Amino acid sequence: MVSLSIVHKHVFRRTTTINNTNMTMTMTMMMLMIMTMLATTIIKTDAFLMPINNKKPTTTSSRHNKNNKIIRTPSSSLLSMAQQQQQSQSSGSTPGGSGAAAPAKTLKPLSKPLMDSGSAMARSGELLIDFTTTLDLYGGALSSAGAQIRNAGDCLAQAAATCRFKTGLEIVIDELREAATCLGEAADSVEKAQEEALADSDSLLQTKCSELYNPLKESSRSLEEAGASILMRKSLGDVGTSFIDASKQLKTISQTLMELGVLKSNNDDGIVSGQRMEYASKRLYDGGIELRGGVDGTKKPIGRAFLKGM
Hints:
Layout: H1 2-49, E1 60-64, E2 70-74, H2 75-92, H3 111-134, H4 141-162, H5 169-199, H6 203-231, H7 236-263, H8 268-292
Antiparallel strand pairs: 1-2
Helix pairs in contact: 3-4, 3-8, 4-5, 5-6, 6-7, 7-8
């Protein structure tokens, strides 16, 4: 009996120790879980409340002042200073000074003068064809040159009609380059007309055809350059410069046509053909000025002269 009671006491003590150990482990695990939850909550709260700094680290550059001390300047400040300097230089180089108008932002201002220029050029080509009828050269190379000039004018008019729309940029480029192609073919026809005049022993016509060749080629090159500038998204000021260059060549063509009409018995078709080409040159020049945003220096200011009856 004594031995049984001793065994019971030993088993009871063993059971009590195990229970105490289990409780201790359970409490420890609960404490760990509570600490983990608190730590997670604190991390999330800090991440939510922490201000976000998206600024990129700026590198610094050094420069020397008068006392040979190094002054540190952020590169972002240097970049802004360079941009301001570039803007001031560009504004200072604008034609006409700071008071001059800025270059155009779209091709819309070109629409009206280019339409007038194209219509006048097409009419000049038609009159040149009629002029060859008087010269008894209808169907020859000079007639072909007149037809190509008329086609070039039609292309310019089509480009002008499309300049009003932002979505018609590709059509404008195609029409300008097609007009350039037509003027180049007109130059080739004039070269053939020069050979025909040589065969007919017409030295006057031969001389005038030779004078027409280079201006036609140069005007073709300028219009091609204008279309390429739009295609490569250059500034509209460059496009306007190309139109101005082409207008100068058209001016030379108009003078040659009028001289030819005068020398050939004052033929009206030849003279009017030159006059229409002169108007085409003027309006093309106006379109170039519109794109460049400059002021036509050839026009004299009127001022208040009209008040004096002048």
